Amino acid sequence: MQLAAHGITHRYGPLAVLENVSLSVGEGEVVAVVGPSGCGKSTLLRILGGLEAPDAGRITAEGAPPAGSLNPITYVFQDFALLPWRSVAGNVRLPLEGRGLDAAERDERVRDALQRTGLTDFAKAWPKQLSGGMKQRVGIARALAVQPAILLMDEPLSALDGQTRELLMDDLVRLHDEGALSTVYVTHNLDEAVRLADRILVLSRRPGTIRAVVDIARPRAERAAGDPMLAAQAKDLWALIRADAEAADRELAP
Q: Per the database record, which ranges form the ABC transporter domain (predicted)?
């Protein structure tokens, strides 16, 4: 399944947020979206997911989702959004309820999602017993349980400490190398972008327009934290963004 945005322009009242932004994500591809604060990254993600309608432009999806997909386009948020009165397994099971699945199929989907995210031994744990990294794993497992074609991820690792972020990045690399899962990944962290993405869309300051599209040629499985080539690419990205980021910060200053 492929997802594309064509000439997306959007405003909030008099505030122009996005202007003529186009992108595509193919099967098995990861597209990261980076740019200064307030450039419309999260707005673009909401429009891609159908949570907002753009003022101009359109979103198209082509191709069939995976067999058994309950929700072809699925979100993973920065906020873990777990229900505290449900166990880990109960939270993962939540989007499967009311879908016409029998109990055996629901249980199998939960088991598979927990196994893929390393949570099998924590199925009966409560959210209050989990670290931030484990809570985010539950959020990812919940998304995987519906067997999506495309994940929309909005700063999924930004609330985590550096060590936990690196471990979860390893998990995301592994999950994408397992199959044809596609992702649009919004982040402020340029190291995350060059580690995970096939292509990086660089937005300008508000209203967000496409400043550059950067391809990462090295296979994802061959990338590692501290790789000098990745560090150089992250530095190049910062050079593209820095002036706009500084201008955006001045704009927000009291």
A: 3-230
Query: Predicted confidence band at 226 (pLDDT cuts at 50, 70, 90)?
Result: confident
The token pair that represents 71 in the structure block: 């929700």
Domains of the chain by start residue, with CATH: 2-65+151-164+171-252 (3.40.50.300), 84-148 (no CATH)
Q: Which residues on neighbouring strands pair with residue 30, listed in sequence order? A: 183
Joined tokens for residue 3: 């997802």
- Read off the amino acid at residue 129: Q
Exposure pattern of 51-76 as b/e (b: 16+ CB <10 Å)? eeebeebebebeeebeeebbbbbbbb
Q: How many of the other CB atoms lie within 10 Å of CB of 203?
A: 25
E-assigned strands of 135-209?
150-154, 182-186, 199-203
* Helix, coil or strand: residue 193: helix
**What is the DSSP secondary structure assignment for residue 25, as one 8-state letter?**
E
Rounding to the nearest 10 degrees, give the CA dihedral for residues 174, 175, 176, 179: 110
3-state SS, residue 73: strand
Task: Output the six-digit token pair for 95.
Answer: 């989007």
pLDDT tens profile 147-157: 888 999 998 88
Beta bridge partners of 24: 4
Residues 88 and 130: beta-carbon distance below 8 Å = yes
